[in-house]
Amino acid sequence: MGCTHDCSSCGESCSSRTEPQDLHESLNKLSSVKKVIGVISGKGGVGKSLVTSTLAVEMNRRGYKTAVLDADITGPSIPKAFNIHSRAMGNDDGIFPVTTETGIDIMSINLLLKNETDPVIWRGSLISGTVKQFWTDVIWENEDFMFVDMPPGTGDVALTVFQSIPVDGIVIVTSPQDLVSMIVAKAVKMAQMMNVPILGIVENMSYFMCTECGKKHYIYGDSKIDEIAEEYDTKVLAKIPIDPEIASLVDQGKVEMYNADFMDSAADEIEKLIK
Ligand code: ADP
User: What domains are defined for the chain?
Assistant: First the structure.
């Protein structure tokens, strides 16, 4: 009786009801990507790009062909971490990602801008349209894992990206000074709406390991991440210390040289998706 003839907005349950539409975009015909992992955070500056890049480095070291799609259009930090300053090339078939020294394929808005320091002052729809094109127009050849450095937050742009790219799992990045519980709650709700599994939470800047006294110092107070993970029925994948060395490697574009084991358990969990 109350049918609006539009199943996406109508609450009636009738025999002619159609399934919700799958809005995922198709890959370029020359691309193949086995598993897509979205890395999200509640806000900028908590280490989402650091987590994305170290996870990509770890999976690449394990022998998987790995890609990073930098969907953080307004704050693209992936090319800098991998010391990529060249521009992406393309032909009639599509755009080629730029490959890092150790073989990770990267696409980021900074590889398309004339000047990498130009700011991107765009509306949300243009940003999500660009991310869609990174998925549809870039030639991602035989990738085992693609990590998507998502736009910060759980707003409109992040949602549109999730609708267009078929993500197989989400990693949530938080830091202890965040309103962690609220951020995790929002991320969990978004993942449920999008029907994407949450692989777990990475707590960045968790503690500082003092090289002089050998003790862990919880600079931002005691971590509550274990309780929060339990509350939302998910796992803590990693606790990353505040580490000036990693910050300096990222700043110098040498993230591929990082030598620490804090991403091992997160990588184990991600590896399960393909094994
Ligand atoms: P986001 O992607 O969430 O905006 P980034 O990964 O770009 O955040 O990190 C923001 C800044 O903080 C960068 O300069 C990065 O090197 C630094 N940083 C992130 N995590 C750590 C850490 N665990 N120890 C030291 N510096 C860090």
Answer: 25-269 (3.40.50.300)
